[in-house]
Write a structure and sequence with these properties.
By secondary structure, the protein is α+β, with helices and mostly antiparallel strands. The chain is built from three helices and three strands, in the order E-E-H-E-H-H. The chain has a single domain, classed as GIY-YIG endonuclease, CATH 3.40.1440.10. The protein is globular. The relative contact order is 0.26.
């Protein structure tokens, strides 16, 4: 499976990402091994979607990082 996910950072911001191993990736975020989130610990997983297709997961992650994706996230997911 392939995953697109959203984390809530300690400063109140959100971070979208992609992974093939969500549990491992979340652990990496939590221990500070991910450059983009290590200064904003602790992080909280607030949403994820599982996809059979890698491309669909990557496309959804990319969408979540757009203006429309921000609006969708704020209205429907958080």
């Amino acid at each position: 499976m392939f995953y697109a996910y959203i984390l809530k950072l300690s400063n109140g911001a959100y971070c979208a990402g992609f992974s093939t191993d969500l549990k491992q990736r979340l652990h990496e975020h939590e221990i500070g091994d991910v450059h983009t989130t290590k200064m904003y610990l602790p992080v909280e997983l607030i949403y994820y979607s599982a996809f059979k297709s890698k491309q669909k997961a990557l496309d959804f992650e990319k969408y979540l990082k757009t203006g429309s994706g921000f609006a969708f996230r704020n209205k429907r997911l958080v």
